[in-house]
Specification:
Layout (H helix, E strand, L loop, with lengths): L3 E7 L3 H12 L4 E4 L28 H14 L3 E3 L2 E6 L4 E6 L3 E12 L3 E3 L12 E3 H9 L8 E5 L3 H12 L3 E7 L8 H9 L4 E3 L1 E7 L6 E6 L12 E4 L2 E4 L3 E3 L2 H5 L4 E4 L4 E4 L12 E3 L9 H18 L5 H18 L2 H21 L2
Parallel strand pairs: 1-2, 1-6, 2-3, 6-19, 8-15, 9-10, 9-15, 10-11
Antiparallel strand pairs: 4-5, 5-6, 7-16, 12-13, 13-14, 17-18
């Protein structure tokens, strides 16, 4: 077999792990690739309990979910390559990789699932380049994976789930969160998360943004300013806080570079993070044999990413002829029922509408 695989999955986060398990259970020879030294992606940074229903792991911490998935990959003898970067893929399923930053080689797959996730957005203000300004995800990695406190006094920009969850975890790690700043007039995260932070005494500043960070060798102070209904600064409303860390939780952007290289069609959906690959309900892109799953297919949550991974895995198995049509359709229907359940309610309905836009284009374009 050599460097030839039935399925190569790029990205060993929630979506990639779930996809590898589903495809392997059906008998596919699977290779799972990740650039990090440990699989699991965001799950091992998520020490909080998942929110939702029991079937979506509600009440279970992300790290425990990640451990369960890793156990399944080992029991199935799925081949995993860590510390391996994927430099490019082609429409004929050639994949170029670099192992341990020193050795490159080419591998080939009948099918490719791209589950590369997303990267953190940034925002520019005077002093934004100072040490101590970082993404909220970076701070979460420091405290939950590396056991390093990024700072003693922290200001968080962004009140979505990432902003409030990481704020609470920073406090658990011993930091003082002096405030959470939100440019919009209302908070963006789930009430269950924002309430915990509010009860801990952290003030929220809605209709505010960061105007300037002060410091010489690192952040020493931060100035915030109120915004009016036209998103313009209100003169005289500035407030200054002494902080050593500013965390930015201002959204994510899908990591679509490899999918671009393969020649897949894209569409722009702002609420899903920007440009996302057009795909159908089976996670097939417009290039035959290339699939997507998780945040690369549109920014959502870890629970959704895992379900999309399972969907891509069973879809690949069916397209390889490893699963009968009736069984594949039954399994896909089960997964779609779970996805629709996740995409309900105040926040989920917006994601469901956005995903429907992508799937509608997928009906027209997917091979």
């Amino acid at each position: 077999m050599g460097n030839n695989y039935d399925v190569v999955i790029i990205g060993a986060g929630p979506a990639g792990l779930a996809a590898s398990i589903e495809a392997s259970k059906s008998g596919a020879r699977v290779l799972l690739i990740d650039e990090n030294n440990k699989p699991g992606g965001q799950l091992f940074k998520q020490i909080h309990k998942f929110f939702g229903s029991r079937e979506h792991k509600a009440g279970t911490r992300g790290i425990n979910i990640g451990t369960e998935l890793l156990h399944d990959t080992k029991s199935l003898d799925i081949e995993v390559m860590l510390n391996t970067e994927v430099c490019g893929i082609t429409s004929d399923k050639k994949i170029w990789i670099i192992e341990n930053k020193e050795r490159s080689k080419e591998i080939h797959a009948e099918k490719i699932i791209v589950a590369t996730g997303a990267f953190e957005n940034s925002v520019q203000f005077d002093g934004w380049e100072l040490p101590g300004v970082m993404g909220a995800g970076a701070a979460q990695t420091m405290i939950n994976l590396n056991r390093v406190l990024p700072g003693q006094k922290v200001l968080m920009l962004g009140s979505g789930n990432v902003g409030v969850i990481v704020s609470y975890q920073l406090m658990q790690a011993g930091a003082d969160v002096v405030g959470i700043v939100e440019a919009a007039p209302s908070l963006g995260g789930y009430g269950v998360h924002t309430a915990k932070v509010a009860r801990a005494g952290v003030p929220f500043y809605t209709s505010h943004t960061i105007k300037k960070a002060y410091g010489t060798d690192r952040v020493e102070k931060v100035e915030i300013v109120q915004l009016d209904s036209s998103w313009k600064e209100v003169e005289g409303s500035e407030k200054i806080f002494e902080v050593d860390t500013i965390c930015l939780a201002v959204g994510l952007t899908p990591m679509i570079e490899l999918v671009w290289l393969a020649g897949c069609e894209f569409t722009y959906i702002g609420s899903m993070g920007g440009y996302v690959p057009v795909h159908d309900k089976c996670m097939r892109t417009t290039v035959d044999g290339i699939y997507v799953a998780g945040d690369v297919a549109g920014i959502e949550e870890a629970s959704t990413a895992m379900e999309e991974g399972r969907l891509a895995g069973i879809s690949v198995a069916y397209d390889l002829g490893l699963v009968e049509k009736e069984k594949a359709e039954e399994r896909m229907d089960e997964i779609w029922n779970k996805l629709n359940s996740l995409r309900c309610g105040q926040f989920g309905e917006k994601r469901r509408t956005a995903k429907d836009q992508i799937l509608e284009k997928g009906k027209e374009l997917v091979v």
